[in-house]
């Protein structure tokens, strides 16, 4: 088995999955790092070690931590000043996923910087209140770098638009970074994409972790609790629900608040999608379990969770909530309306089509070339694998476009940098924006989706925006394109 620095440097780790980690530890709450513009803050990408399994340390990566990073909080109307330092052994970036920032501040592949260097991000925050996130975005290395810990939450606060929702961070406003990970027989992280299924569908772990802890327990007050859910997995899709079937309310999606709370009893999140939900624990004294179905890989192949079978439709335990004493000064009821950003993109001036391609015919040869260290892109968009030197589309600043996106072979989460978009239709059926909200990731299948896109930040050919599948192994394998905005 590869270990230490070799484990972190290797693109593929050829080690079998043979360990079922025990859960039940207390849910870790990432510390807040205020990046409200009052002064520059430092975010250091570094090597570390983390005990997913008690008594066993495994090599990891993190920002300002051994694994994952702090919750960055920026404020609308201020200028964020974040100095990202690289103390790892490889090039890294920090992509502000979902943020409306210029291309040269987006943290995409062109921004990759070497060990010992610092990238200084300075951007005005015009985004409405939202749960965003950040992660490394080095082309060909995003999968292993995020898997080993280079990711964290990014919250946008808007004091001018109070929402009346629970807001005591870590108490009744709880961040949940949900990931799947695998471990070898000694309890060390395994990242293995040597097989056909992992290349085709993306890497699936066999153990659920939340905020870096295996199936943890979260102490919560009795009353309304806001959960900020991020699917931070490389490739796994979730279908979250509570074991007792209780109702909850969704109050926000990727790009910010919904116009009003939406009652649900389950919510599906693809890789990189976020949702804020509010759960009422006021009548609970016994533990409450958040679970998910064991969905098929990428909507196509088996999931492979221990004890659940391969995409068996069985149950995955995510985490358990332990309700405690009554809350103090927290809201006792949900507001009837929320200060959501308006849907005012206007009529599109042009239409573009994007097809997410899997070049299955060259899969085996490309897999072999990659295993032996050679390059070989096996996926693409509109027939072209990603090329950092090629611009695939040129947009005009502030113009609205209609994008038709399809995925003939399997389901993909499609992400656009630099903006939030509006989903217009799925499979030819109209979508209600009031329940969908503003998005930056949308699930695409063979029936296709239509989205309205308007980008209000510039990006030139030196620092273009990306559009790509957010199954990280697909992105690394070439299912990505780039565009300018002038």
Number of helices: 6
Mean pLDDT: 89
> Tell me about the biggest sheet?
8 strands, mixed
Q: Indicate the percent of residues in helices.
A: under 10%
Shape: globular
Runs with pLDDT <50, length 5+? 1-18, 299-311, 360-375
| Overall number of strands | 33
Q: Rounded to an integer, what's the Rg over CA atoms?
A: 21 Å
The amount of beta strand, in percent, is: 35-45%
Would you tell me the structural class of the helices and strands?
mainly beta
Oligomer: single chain
Report the end-to-end length measured between terminal Cα atoms.
49 Å
Short description:
With about 475 residues, this protein is mainly beta. The protein is built from six helices and 33 strands.
Description:
By secondary structure, the chain is mainly beta. Helices cover about 5% and strands about 40% of the residues. The protein has six helices and 33 strands. Strands 10, 11, 12, 13, 15, 17, 18 and 20 form an eight-stranded mixed β-sheet that branches. A six-stranded mixed β-sheet has the order 24-23-26-31-28-29, with no helix packed on it. It has a five-stranded mixed β-sheet with strand order 1-4-9-8-6, with no helix packed on it.
Provide key terms for this protein.
mainly beta, six-stranded mixed β-sheet, eight-stranded mixed β-sheet, 33 strands, globular
Task: Please give the structural blueprint.
Blueprint lengths: L3 H6 L22 E3 L6 E13 L2 E8 L7 E5 L3 E9 L7 E3 L20 E7 L5 E6 L6 H6 L3 E7 L15 E11 L5 E2 L5 H6 L5 E4 L2 E2 L2 E6 L1 E8 L6 E5 L5 E6 L2 E9 L1 E4 L4 E7 L7 E6 L21 E12 L23 E9 L4 H9 L7 E3 L11 E3 L4 E7 L5 E5 L5 E5 L2 E2 L2 H4 L4 E4 L4 E6 L10 E5 L2 H5 L3 E6 L1
Parallel strand pairs: 1-4, 2-5, 4-9, 10-15, 14-22, 23-26, 25-33
Antiparallel strand pairs: 2-3, 5-7, 6-8, 8-9, 10-11, 10-12, 12-13, 15-20, 16-19, 16-21, 17-18, 17-20, 21-22, 23-24, 26-31, 27-30, 27-32, 28-29, 28-31, 32-33
């Amino acid at each position: 088995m590869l270990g230490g620095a070799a484990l972190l440097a290797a693109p593929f780790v050829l080690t079998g999955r043979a360990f079922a980690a025990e859960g039940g530890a207390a849910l870790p709450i990432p510390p807040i790092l205020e990046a409200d513009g009052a002064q520059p803050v430092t975010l250091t990408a570094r090597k570390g070690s983390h005990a997913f399994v008690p008594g066993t340390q495994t090599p990891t990566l993190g920002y300002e931590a051994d694994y994952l990073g702090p919750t960055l909080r920026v404020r609308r109307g201020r200028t964020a000043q974040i100095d990202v330092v690289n103390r790892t052994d490889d090039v890294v970036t920090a992509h502000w996923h979902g943020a409306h920032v210029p291309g040269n501040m987006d943290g995409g592949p062109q921004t990759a910087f070497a060990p010992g260097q610092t990238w200084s991000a300075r951007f005005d925050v015009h985004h409405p209140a939202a749960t965003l996130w950040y992660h490394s975005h080095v082309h060909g290395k995003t999968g292993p770098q995020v898997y080993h810990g280079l990711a964290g939450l990014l919250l946008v606060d808007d004091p001018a638009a109070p929402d009346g929702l629970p807001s005591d961070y870590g108490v009744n406003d709880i961040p949940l970074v949900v990931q799947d990970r695998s471990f070898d027989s000694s309890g060390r992280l395994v990242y293995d994409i040597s097989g056909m299924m992992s290349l085709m569908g993306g890497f699936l772990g066999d153990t659920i972790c939340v905020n870096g802890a295996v199936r943890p327990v979260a102490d919560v007050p009795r009353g309304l609790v806001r959960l900020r859910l991020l699917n931070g997995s490389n490739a796994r899709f979730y279908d979250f629900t509570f074991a007792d079937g209780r109702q909850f309310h969704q109050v926000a999606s990727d790009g910010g608040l919904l116009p009003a709370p939406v009652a649900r009893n389950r919510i599906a999140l693809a890789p990189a999608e976020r949702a804020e939900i509010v759960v009422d624990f006021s009548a609970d004294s016994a533990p409450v379990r958040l679970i998910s179905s064991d969905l098929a890989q990428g909507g196509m192949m088996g999931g492979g969770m221990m004890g659940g079978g391969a995409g068996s439709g069985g149950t995955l335990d995510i985490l358990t909530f332990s309700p405690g004493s009554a809350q103090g000064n927290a809201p006792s009821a949900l507001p009837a309306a929320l200060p959501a950003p308006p849907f005012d993109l206007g009529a599109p001036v042009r239409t573009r089509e994007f097809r997410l391609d899997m070049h299955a015919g060259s899969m085996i040869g490309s897999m072999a070339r990659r295993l032996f260290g050679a390059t070989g892109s096996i996926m693409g968009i509109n027939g072209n694998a990603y090329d950092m030197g090629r611009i695939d589309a040129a947009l005009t600043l502030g113009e609205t476009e209609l994008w038709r996106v399809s995925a003939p072979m399997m389901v993909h989460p499609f992400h656009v940098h630099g903006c939030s978009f509006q989903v217009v239709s799925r499979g030819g059926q109209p979508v209600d924006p009031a329940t969908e909200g503003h998005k930056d990731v949308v699930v695409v299948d063979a029936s296709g989706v239509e989205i309205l896109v308007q980008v209000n930040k510039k990006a030139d050919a030196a620092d273009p925006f990306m559009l790509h599948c957010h199954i990280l192994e697909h992105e690394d394998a070439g299912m990505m394109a780039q565009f300018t905005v002038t």
